[in-house]
Amino acid sequence: MNIADACFELEVWPSHFKTSSMIIIPKSNKKSYDFLKSFRSIVLLNILGKLIEKVIGEHLQFYLILNNFIYLCQLGGLMQRSTIDVGIALSYFICLGWVKNNITSTLAFNIAQFFPSLNHHLLPFILKKARCDSKVYHFF
Question: Does the pTM of the predicted model rise above 0.90?
Answer without folding.
Answer: no
